[in-house]
Amino acid sequence: VQLQESGPGLVAPSQTLSLTCTVSGIPITTSSWWWSWVRQPPGKGLEWIGNIDGSGSTAHSPSLKSRTSISRDTSQNQFTLQLSSVTPEDAAVYYCSAMPYDYWGQGTQVTVSS
User: Fold this and answer.
1) Which of 25, 31, 65, 79 is the most buried (most CB within 10 A)?
2) 3-state class of 57 per DSSP?
3) Could you tell me if 54 and 28 are in contact, meaning their C-beta atoms sit under 8 angstroms apart?
4) Cα gap 96→110, rounded to integer Å
5) Is 108 exposed, middle or buried (0-12, 13-18, 19+ CB in 10 A)?
6) Do residues 108 and 21 lie in contact, with contact meaning Cβ atoms separated by under 8 Å?
7) Which 3 state secondary structure label does DSSP give 80?
């Protein structure tokens, strides 16, 4: 199983960040798997953002729920994160991961700046 994040490395404040995770090796519709977004701000620990499971059901961190949307494109075997109204506090390395089997993408750095 391999995961690869893609998306812009620079987002302007108040805009929407959109990241895509492309999965290979297993369909994202597989039951008992869930596909997560996690981030790590500079100097801080990992923060779970949310996930989408094999049936398409989503769960979100309460602290980010009002600004996040997670969706999927099963034809492309991809899932996507959208984070709206970004601020400099949203700058982080963003990872996609596959649980409960603990596969991770390499991460993508996101900077929030005008």
Assistant:
1) 79
2) coil
3) yes
4) 13
5) buried
6) no
7) strand
CA atoms within 13 A on the CB side of 89: 5
Residue 78 to residue 70: CA distance in whole angstroms: 11
* Model confidence pLDDT, tens digit, residues 51-102: 999 999 999 999 999 999 999 999 999 999 999 999 999 999 999 999 999 9
> Tens of pLDDT along 12-54?
999 999 999 999 999 999 999 999 999 999 999 999 999 999 9
Residue the block writes with tokens 């199983």: 1
Q: Rounded to whole angstroms, how far apart are CA atoms 33 and 20?
A: 18
